[in-house]
Amino acid sequence: MTPEQFADIATRLEQQVSRAIVGQHDIIRHTLIAIIAGGHVLLEGLPGLGKTSLVRAFADALDLRFSRIQFTPDLMPADIVGTDILEEQESGKRAFRFQAGPIFSNLILADEINRATPKTQSALLEAMQERTVTVLGRTYRVEPPFFVLATQNPIEMEGTYPLPEAQLDRFLFKLNVAFPSTDELATIIEQTTGDKAARAQRVTDGRTLAAMGAYIRQVPAASQVTRYAARLIAATHPDNPGATEMVKRYVRFGSSPRGAQALLLGGRVLALLNGRFNVAIDDLRALAPAAIRHRVLLNFEGQAEGIRTDDIIQSVIESIKTP
């Protein structure tokens, strides 16, 4: 694969998804970057903003097996991973057979993930990190490529179960889906209430996507770029000498090392999309909010004053001088 081939496939994927989704260009671009990098995405936004349609459009464009799991308070882990069932064989004997759950797909839509109990949420953890599922002492491997795109609603938080920090950290990016502009809203109404509804067409398959994911790891990142990512992550910790006043005042815990991994992996994809075969510091800056916002935990004062983690990240970016 060459940089030109990579950029061509990625651009066509972006164009096909944009046919089905009006606006949301940044969300589409960041989701594409995360999928190529082999990571999972957490989409947060109000109901009806096209989060489910976005995931389905990517499944169509990538020709991947797609499963949608609606998370509800009564959902059990076995409803996700599957279970052993007792069935009678032709010989008349009875034996257990593993009935795979919907997690054994390539692209998983975990819809309203924060409405299920922590026990059920944790059923995704092993698959998201190790790409395996353990049921009744036996381990099964999920078929690559494997991505979880989860959605959650920032309102109506009563009766929900916020994701624990360990599970949030498994998501490469957290994306905030904004309300569309007036022009975009008019286009959405026209498409969805008439006969002009568009659907993403197949662009590539899982094997090519896996090759693209392996190819990005060949994109070089200079030592000063890697060090910038390390300084950026370290500065989100209030006890670090490079922490800003906002971090020291409002942050309880900063980002984990996975935040730096997300920056470098995403930066490699973004560099290729921008026609470069090297990671630039501007790539890391552009991806910092998506890669870090769910990894920075506010303290009580920050929550009480309604401080946005994006503002804290911006203060950190501005405080670090470019080498």
List the helices and strands and how they pair.
Elements: H1 3-20, H2 25-36, E1 40-44, H3 51-62, E2 66-70, H4 77-81, E3 82-88, E4 94-100, E5 107-111, H5 118-121, H6 125-130, E6 132-135, E7 138-141, E8 147-152, H7 165-168, E9 171-176, H8 182-193, H9 206-216, H10 223-234, H11 245-250, E10 251-253, H12 257-273, H13 281-292, E11 297-298, H14 300-304, H15 309-319
Parallel strand pairs: 1-8, 1-9, 2-5, 5-8
Antiparallel strand pairs: 3-4, 6-7, 10-11
Helix pairs in contact: 1-2, 1-3, 10-12, 12-13, 13-15
List keywords for this structure.
323 residues, alpha/beta, Helicase, Ruva Protein, domain 3, 46% helix
The CATH class of the largest domain, by name, is Alpha Beta
**SSE sequence, one letter per element:** HHEHEHEEEHHEEEHEHHHHEHHEHH
| CATH fold title of the largest domain | Rossmann fold
Query: What global shape is seen?
Result: globular
Contiguous low-pLDDT stretches (5 residues minimum) are: none
Q: Compute the average pLDDT.
A: 86
Continuous helix count? 15
Question: Terminal Cα separation, in Å?
Answer: 32 Å
The SS-based structural class is alpha/beta
Q: What share of residues are in beta strands? A: 15-25%
Based on CA atoms alone, the radius of gyration comes out at 21 Å
Looking at the overall shape, the CATH architecture of the largest domain is 3-Layer(aba) Sandwich
Tally of distinct domains:
2
Question: In which range does the helix fraction lie?
Answer: 40-55%
Spatially, the strands of the biggest sheet line up as 2-5-8-1-9
Largest sheet: 5 strands, parallel
